[in-house]
Write a structure and sequence with these properties.
heterodimer, A: alpha/beta, Aspartate Aminotransferase, domain 2, Aspartate Aminotransferase, domain 1, 3 domains, 7-stranded mixed sheet, 15 helices, 12 strands, B: alpha/beta, 4-stranded antiparallel sheet, 17 strands, 16% strand
């Protein structure tokens, strides 16, 4: 990584008269724009004027200020930053979808629709569900869609009393936010000391007003909810449904399926478990699966197979409506399917166990220096509650920043909210023991530094393009555009 | 174990790591999973493919897809993607990064988001932009949620009948969850009926009015004075637009809109059978703290160097949980880089030319098709940019038009009903494509 900050903005490279793209000089029978003046903008937009080499060099330089999975180890808990296979990009090109319009006749897009159906079926097999809709654009969008499925299911039965959704206090912030957006009242369920759901607290909160319990399993502290058979029957006995947040599906590959655990509705983050690139925050995909009997509540449009095996796009599910204009982030599906086909049944079954082995290996190698609030085998990730020796006043934030100097991305910090100094590590299965050893060594060195020279750790990082950005200033005096940046302050 | 090329572990590695964990088998790490839940047999999925096999598999599927001259739009348009954009997006420092939570090693991402925000504000005339929503429809739904959140208890939202049906349907889904009542403002010959809108505003309790520009039929509506009427009723004006036409059309800010939103796929993003595109969401500064999603701001680091960070995070779900305006996280990340790189290369002048060529192509096609006698413009008195509605003269039907064009390698448009289609053109439609389309329906051929 280039440690010198490249800090130019493209606007600052602009010179009047330059341009970076050419357009055809077609002679159409009708010329240019015929709109009345009053419908046209008064002045041209303030966009940069730059030549093509300048644009390419600008973004290339700027990319060197970034850290990706291809740059180094990225143990960001709950984000499953596994290797993104390069052939998956080639598969997108091979599938020849670049110039397919989503409204063109079904006859001319049979390959695209077959990819959609094949992935749907593969996810149904891995999830233990009956059917999937791939339309939701992201994990949070999947949660929202899944909850709307549940809402429509109860309304379809004429049951208007189920207005509440139970969410464990360890859940991702999106769970309660999605439930609220879907029109539910959110009720928190307590966790036990080991981070798993307090079944007594749950039982007390289950009644005829509850539509669903949302769960992440393994949960956000990386522990398997071993009470799941009992939880599932409690929830179902109360007439409610069980929702599986697929954020932590990775360690379950090859081990167990949400459908078999009793979950009725689930979403999968293709950008986590199925290795599609995170793209600096998207595009991802959050397909939603349902058990048999709930298929008619999935959103439109649906890809449907007729008797002769011909695929069409239909909007036949009257119960729901839409969550997307078309069929979602389509190219992400191609990459996910390419990953599944590359791994195959056997390869996929190794993903969970190796992700879990990697996490336990790191945990066991560091628990003498970092506080492990929940002992015992974790799954794909685990949480430390900061350093054991906190005498130097070194916090989780300091440790995270110091790790950047050692060439690693930081773990997830200050989540889950169950602990004050949460430091959540998820190595994923694609990291070699050598990489893990280097990370362990760095974490041990930092623990040592925290004791010997705490101020040094607190002032980290030193070796990054910038250090200690003033986030308070950013929030108090928001400067959100180049135009604002140019205003005298 | 059978090794796989993405999995580095050797048998020896596994044995050493298990010893460190104090167990003898990987299975011991799953002792807490009840045996009756364990997968009894392997997945019912094929065996893993090598790279050459995988490429062959997708190439075979690719042959079942047929690329055609595209005259379909309805919110997704085939514009040219400069090669430099594709090249920039392939930088894996960008593509394989997560949300920029660690600003010290994410300045690349943060900086392009800042540039993107600046460019979207330049296009819309707004003061604030977030760093994206999933698509144009969900961006509009988020805009409505924002407006309702700032309207204190007013729950009526007026939606023009000229807004795209897919947007209206997504809006209906979101509104039903949030207890928002959507009421449709009728259309008058393809444009929003402003007198009807005024009547509906008069009944009170309206949080926002949702309009579009160009509208679903491709018509550029005249919204002069409309914002004043909406604001007089203390409601907000939300204007949905595809991004590219904003390069030439009067901006949402100039019309007096409070929130500008829509689909940015038209900024040279490949069609890719419908996604990924990019939803943009911009607003006036007074609404900044209701804006959902990620926002990047400029600041300085401890050595005074300019840098960028995620900011205003107190609005977001990971802090406010169920009290947040939205559940949205970061989403179409790298597509904001696509937009920024595209707009950098095109500049204002390039974007103007794209729209002029698209408009010229569309008007040429419209003239040619109407001259065949098989079609008539449904709204001849309304101005359009690059998309228009054709009524089809009986006995020809929309299905027949679409089928005979498809047989000739042309996507004729999007079917509106049995006897009309919505047709769009862009700079990717050559004069020859247009001729071929028109020739198909000349009387001699019919």
């Amino acid at each position: 990584m280039n440690r010198k900050l490249y800090d130019k903005l493209i606007f600052e490279l602009s010179r009047p008269g330059r341009h970076g793209a050419d357009l055809p000089s077609y002679n159409y029978s009708h010329s240019a724009c015929t709109l009345p003046e009053g419908l046209l903008r008064e002045t041209a937009p303030e966009l940069p004027e730059v030549d093509e080499p300048t644009v390419v060099r600008h973004y290339t330089n700027s990319s060197t200020n970034n850290f990706g999975v291809d740059t180094g180890f990225y143990p960001l808990g709950s984000c499953t930053m596994k290797y993104n296979p390069k052939v998956d990009e080639a598969a997108v090109a091979d599938a020849a979808v670049e110039n397919l319009h989503p409204a063109q006749p079904a006859d001319s897009v049979q390959g695209a629709l077959k990819i959609y159906r094949t992935l749907e079926k593969a996810l149904a097999e891995v999830g233990g569900m009956a059917e999937f809709s791939l339309n939701p654009f992201a994990g949070a969008h999947g949660e929202y869609t899944g909850l709307m499925v549940i809402r429509r299911y109860f309304l379809g039965k004429g049951d208007e009393t189920r207005t509440r959704v139970l969410v464990p206090d360890s859940a991702h912030g999106t769970n309660p936010a999605s439930a609220a957006m879907a029109g539910f009242e959110v009720v928190e369920v307590k966790s036990l000391a080991d981070g798993t759901v307090d079944i007594d607290d749950l039982a007390g909160k289950l009644d005829s007003t509850v539509a669903a319990l949302m769960m992440t399993n393994p949960n956000t502290v990386g522990m398997f909810e071993k009470g799941i058979p009992q939880i599932a029957s409690l929830v179902h006995d109360a007439g409610a449904l069980l929702y599986y947040d697929g954020a932590n599906l990775n360690p379950m590959l090859g081990i167990a399926r949400p459908g078999d655990m009793g979950f009725d509705v689930m979403h999968i983050n293709l950008h986590k478990t199925f290795a599609t690139p995170h793209g600096g925050g998207g595009p991802g995909a959050g397909p939603v699966g349902v058990r048999a009997g709930l298929e008619q509540y999935l959103p439109n449009p649906r890809v449907v197979e007729d008797a002769e095996g011909k695929l069409t796009v239909e909007c036949g599910n009257e119960a729901f409506g839409r969550v997307s204009s078309w069929l979602g982030n389509y190219t992400v599906y191609i990459k996910a399917l390419a990953y599944i086909l590359t791994m195959g049944a056997e390869g996929l079954a190794w993903v969970g166990p190796l992700a879990t082995l990697n996490a336990n290996y790191v945990k066991e190698s560091l628990k003498d220096l970092y506080l492990l609030p929940i002992d015992g085998p974790c799954k794909h990730e685990f949480v430390f509650d900061g350093l054991i020796d906190k005498s130097g006043g070194v916090t989780t934030l300091n440790v995270a920043k110091r790790l950047l100097d050692y060439g690693f991305h930081a773990p997830t910090i200050y989540f889950p909210l169950l602990f004050h100094e949460s430091l959540m590590v998820e190595p994923t299965e694609t990291e070699s023991p050598e990489t893990l050893d280097a990370f362990i060594e760095a974490m041990r060195a930092i623990a040592h530094e925290a004791k010997e020279n705490p101020e040094f750790v607190k002032n980290a990082p030193y070796d990054t393009p910038v250090s200690h950005p003033d986030e308070d200033k950013a929030a108090l005096e928001p400067c959100l555009t180049y135009a604002e940046l140019m205003e005298p302050r | 174990m059978n090794s796989h090329r993405y999995l580095p572990h050797t048998g020896e590695d596994i044995a050493r790591m298990l010893r460190c964990c104090g167990v003898t088998a990987v299975d011991d790490l799953y002792a807490d999973v009840p045996p009756q839940l364990r997968l009894a047999k392997g997945y019912d999925l094929p065996q893993g493919m090598s790279e050459p096999e995988l490429r062959g598999y997708f190439a075979a599927l690719g042959r079942l897809n047929r690329e055609m001259a595209c005259f379909a739009g309805a919110g997704f348009y085939r514009h040219y993607t400069p090669s430099a954009v594709t090249s920039i997006l392939s930088r894996s420092e960008f593509a394989t990064a997560y949300t920029p939570y660690q600003p010290e090693i994410s300045q690349g991402t943060l900086q392009y988001i800042f540039e993107y925000q600046s460019m979207m504000c330049a296009l819309t005339g707004m003061e604030v932009s977030n760093a994206s929503i999933y698509d144009g429809a969900t961006a509009t739904a988020e805009a409505v949620n924002m407006a309702v959140a700032s309207a204190r208890r007013r729950k009526r939202v007026l939606l023009s009948a000229t807004v795209a049906p897919a947007v209206a349907q997504v809006l209906a889904t979101y509104a039903s969850g949030a207890g928002i009542v959507i009421e449709v403002i009728p259309e008058d010959r393809g444009t929003t009926s402003i007198p009807e809108m005024e009547k509906m505003l008069g009944a009170g309790d309206v949080a926002a009015v949702v309009l579009s520009q160009p509208n679903y039929y491709g018509i550029v509506e005249d919204y002069s004075g409309v914002a004043d009427k909406i604001h007089a009723a203390k409601a907000l004006m939300i204007l949905n637009s595809h991004a590219s036409p904003l390069g030439v059309l009067r901006t949402p800010a100039e019309w007096g809109a409070d929130i500008a939103c829509g689909e940015a796929q038209s900024l040279g993003m490949p069609l890719n059978y419908g996604g990924p595109g990019l939803g943009y969401l911009c607003c006036r500064k007074s609404l900044m703290r209701k804006l959902p999603g990620r926002v990047v701001g400029a600041t300085t680091d401890r050595e005074g160097r300019r840098c960028f960070v995620l900011t205003l995070q107190a609005r977001e779900q990971h802090i406010r949980r169920q009290k947040a305006t939205s559940n949205i996280c970061s989403n179409q990340g790298i597509m904001t880089l696509h937009a920024a790189a595209y707009l950098s290369l095109m500049g204002a002048e390039g974007l103007r030319k794209v729209n002029e060529l698209s408009s010229a192509a569309a008007h040429s096609l419209a003239e040619g098709l109407v001259a065949t006698g098989a079609f008539a413009l449904r709204y001849p008195e309304r101005p359009f940019l690059n998309e228009f509605v054709l009524d089809i003269a009986a006995p020809l039907t929309a299905d027949e038009v679409i089928a005979s064009a498809a047989a000739a390698g042309i996507v004729a448009g999007v079917k509106l009903d049995g006897s009309s289609i919505l047709v769009a053109a862009t700079e990717m439609c050559t004069p020859e494509d247009i001729n071929r389309y028109v020739e198909l329906f000349k009387p001699a051929r019919k």
